[in-house]
Amino acid sequence: MSGKKTPGTTTGNIKPSAGQDEKKINVPQDFDIDMEDPDTQRAAVAIQSQFRKFQKKKQDVKS
Questions:
Q1: How far apart are CA 31 and CA 28, in angstroms?
Q2: CA-CA to 8 of 20 to 30 Å: which in 32, 42, 46, 54?
Q3: Over the chain, what is the mean pLDDT?
Q4: Region Disordered: what ranges (predicted)?
């Protein structure tokens, strides 16, 4: 057996959060998301906006 690691190989030192490993098992391998769809673009902008607000608030609390 060679020492070469394949993408599916686990080393045992990675510990996912509780419940996270179950979610990863049920995730489909292929995602068919239309990146040109206006609804997808609006959703991406909304998510980015909320994330930026969160980051700003987090930075203001540390200061």
A1: 7
A2: 32
A3: 75
A4: 1-35
- Are 55 and 47 contacting, i.e. CB atoms less than 8 angstroms apart? no
Cβ-contact 34, 40 below 8 angstroms: yes
Higher pLDDT, 16 or 56: 56
Distances (CA, A) of 33 to 10, 23, 39, 49: 29, 19, 11, 20
Model pTM? Answer: 0.47
Q: Which two tokens stand for residue 53?
A: 């607000």
Contacts of 40 (CB under 8 A, 6+ apart): 33, 34
